[in-house]
Amino acid sequence: MSTEIYIIRHGESLGNKDKIFLGQLDRDLTSLGHEQARLAAEFFKDKRVDAVYSSSLLRAVNTAKAVADLKGLEVIKSDSLREINAGDWQGRSYDNIAETYPEMWEIWRNADYENVKTPDGETPVQVLSRVYSELEEIAKKHDGQSVVVASHGLAIRIFLRHITDGKINEWAANASITKLSFKDGKFKVEFFNEHSHLGSLVTTVAKGV
């Protein structure tokens, strides 16, 4: 048997709107983000969903909650699905980070994640370790079922890059949906960054991030 996992990147957050690097700062969705979450939930209207998981950060929880409410389920929260703890970068604008940490920011922008160390924070490789372990545990627990998981930009990107050997290495749009299957201990991407359900309300990561 196999497990279906639908990964949703949270809807537009206050950090996304203001071009602030939130990391693990706990900020909610914007009004647009809440509407994106509702539209993402509609994607699952006629689909089986056996469980809904989320990062424990509010912007992901409220994205997951839209699906859970539609399906009469509870959101299971996990710290392991959180965004990167970016240390001193958290709460700073992208421009400020670029000015204060120009060399490391350039490495980040080039997605050279093996060589990025956020000041007083996590490395992307550490994020990958916890996200992969959590998704693998969820997949094994729900063998033969269909699960929705809400998480964050870097957490999703670093995971997908790993399981596709670098073939997928870009940002997913807010409230976009990526489908995975898990069988015989391996993840497979069925589709990536589906956001047609958002229509004109689609938002993406700011250029240069």
Textual characterization of the structure:
This protein has 209 residues and is α/β, with parallel strands linked by helices. It is 36% helix and 20% strand. It has seven helices and eight strands; from the N terminus they run βαβαβαββαααβαββ. The strands form two sheets. It has a six-stranded mixed sheet with strand order 4-3-6-1-7-8, sandwiched between helices. Strand 7 (177-183) and strand 8 form a beta hairpin. Helix 2 packs parallel to helix 3, helix 4 crosses helix 5 (102-109) and helix 6 crosses helix 7 (153-163). The longest helix is centred in the middle third of the chain and has 18 residues, at 124-141. The chain starts with a strand and ends in a 15-residue tail after the last strand. The mean pLDDT is 96.
In short:
Helices cover 36% and strands 20% of the residues. It is of the alpha/beta class and 209 residues long.
Secondary structure blueprint with pairings:
Elements: E1 3-9, H1 14-18, E2 20-21, H2 31-42, E3 51-55, H3 58-71, E4 75-78, E5 92-93, H4 94-100, H5 102-109, H6 124-141, E6 146-151, H7 153-163, E7 177-183, E8 186-194
Parallel strand pairs: 1-6, 3-4, 3-6
Antiparallel strand pairs: 1-7, 2-5, 7-8
